[in-house]
Write a structure and sequence with these properties.
The protein has 128 residues and is of the alpha/beta class. The chain is built from five helices and five strands; from the N terminus they run E-H-E-H-E-H-E-H-E-H. A five-stranded parallel sheet has the order 2-1-3-4-5, sandwiched between helices.
Length: 128
């Protein structure tokens, strides 16, 4: 099963995105910040990461840098889902290797379209 990690310190965002993703058959793993996300990436096989930018301990930009610096996770697709509408945040996210940028409140169709677009390029994971 395809697994998506949601990284956001705002629990209602977890619930909303989890609900939408689960309706499309995706499994969901959650983390409250970048540090917790990195720990869970080593525990759970994840196919795509959705992350907010503004979080305690480790923000979304730092998280993406850490993902890209780790050979095991470097090619993992990452979508930023943030309340920020600042153009410099989108530029900064692109500069660290984010694959897509969505603003909150995120439209369910936009979320699913970006997830499906990015997962088309990810090889199927063996269930063995």
């Amino acid at each position: 099963m395809t697994t998506i990690m949601i990284v956001d310190d705002y629990i209602p965002s977890h619930r909303l995105m989890s609900f939408v993703l689960e309706q499309y058959g995706y499994a969901v793993v959650t983390a409250l910040d970048g540090e917790q996300a990195l720990q869970r990436l080593d525990l759970f096989p994840v196919d795509l990461v959705l992350t907010d930018l503004t979080m305690p301990r480790m923000d979304g930009i730092e998280l993406v840098r850490a993902i890209r610096a780790n050979a095991r996770h470097a090619s993992l697709p990452v979508i930023v889902v943030t309340g920020s509408v600042k153009e410099q945040d989108e530029v900064k996210a692109a500069g660290v290797g984010v694959n897509a940028f969505l603003t909150k409140p995120v439209d369910s169709d936009d979320l699913i379209n970006e997830v499906q677009r990015l997962l088309r390029h990810v090889p199927a994971r063996s269930s063995a």
